[in-house]
Amino acid sequence: MRKFITTLCKNWVGSSVIRLMVKLKTAEEIAILKEGGQRHAFILSELAKKVAPGVSTNDLENYARKLLEESGDKGAFLNYKPSGARRAYPAVLNVSVNDEIVHGIPNENPKILEEGDIVSIDLGVLHKGLITDSAITVGVGKISSQDKKLLQHCKEALDIGIKAARGGAYIGDIGYAIQSFIKPLGYGLCQGLAGHGVGYKVHEEPFVPNQGRKGEGELLQPGMVLAIEPMITLGTDKIVLDKDGYTYKTADGTKAAHFEHTIAITDGDSIILTK
Predict the structure, then answer these.
(1) Is residue 210 a contact partner of residue 194, using CB atoms and an 8 Å limit?
(2) How far apart are the C-alpha atoms of 111 and 121, rounded to whole Å?
(3) Quick one: which of 166, 171, 192, 23 has its CA closest to 101?
(4) pLDDT for 156-210, tens place per residue?
(5) Which of 17, 36, 80, 254 has the most Cβ atoms closer than 10 angstroms to its Cβ?
């Protein structure tokens, strides 16, 4: 889950001059985040198994609540009120179907999943006082070859962004790596939606765009914890906000995919905490 565009764009404008206040996590805190992240990954994998024609988005919401209760953890999104929002978010999941990119509300006007749909499931988990954020996109039944490639390439973009996230590199290196992979493939790269710092809160500094320039933005330091999350479409880069105040959709109605991991920056390769 991301902050709204107007807030995000104030946080990072692609300039190496800007330096934001980032709280580094201790080794002990990163160990807790990794423990919570493994629980997080299990819940997402179980939710993916439930995706099928005839299942409603509210069914997924209720199952997520059950799994969180069994784990003893809490959903970090429930009752969270991002900067600029008119109201608190009413669910533990974001469930976004087809042209919905992110922040789809699963328990208000629930949707029934149909054969050929694709659905993004985004979850925040609060474990021992610390938060991880992760998302997957899943096909409903048999999906088209075009949609399979969309999902595959979005997941690959996440892997590429994570590889670029190393101590001593810059935020701009992450966005540059993602856009350099995605744009030549002809996909839209959602403008204004991006990753972020996470851990003590759902959203922390720094802003982590999916586009950027090498060597610009915040310096990546060991102890930083980031949610990296490419969001791509079969069409336009442009997005629109639904009347529910949360759900972002593609402006041209084409399908979108979204994958996300929470990672910890080290002196070498980053650690994927939600694997």
Answers:
(1) yes
(2) 13
(3) 192
(4) 999 999 999 999 999 999 999 999 999 999 999 999 999 999 999 999 999 999 9
(5) 36
pLDDT digits (tens, 9 = 90+) for 95-151: 999 999 999 999 999 999 999 999 999 999 999 999 999 999 999 999 999 999 999
> What is the C-alpha to C-alpha distance for residues 266 and 212, in angstroms, rounded to an integer?
21
Return the pLDDT at 219: 97
Amino acid 83: pLDDT: 85
Q: Left, alpha or beta for 199 (phi > 0: left; psi -120 to 50: alpha)?
A: left
DSSP summary character for residue 131: E
Buried b / exposed e over 33-68, threshold 16 CB at 10 Å, is bbebbebbbebbeebeeebeeebebbbbbebbbebb
Report the distance separating Cα 98 and Cα 139, nearest Å: 10
- Kindly indicate whether the domain formed by 5-272 is annotated with CATH number 3.90.1720.10: no
> What predicted TM-score, i.e. pTM, was given to this entire model?
0.92
Measured between alpha carbons, how far is residue 151 from residues 95, 119, 210 in Å?
A: 16, 10, 16
Where do we find the tokens 């929002």? 85
Which tokens hold the place of 63? 């199952």
Domain ranges of the chain: 5-272
